Amino acid sequence: MNGAAVGPRDPAPPPDHPIGLGEDSGPHPVVRAVVGLLVGLAAGAVAAALTPRPERATRTATGGGR
Known about the structure:
mainly alpha, 0% strand
């Protein structure tokens, strides 16, 4: 032998729909868009809920506003 690697010379082409991470793997683009929209809306709702409102902060700072 001349020191060549043992095995096929050309590796098999990748499958059309790989199981691992690849450009063709993952959910349908529309599903990805809808999920992204829902995640964005949820993040906005959480941020809005955690952000104190000025009137709420003023009432709390003055002892309840009553």
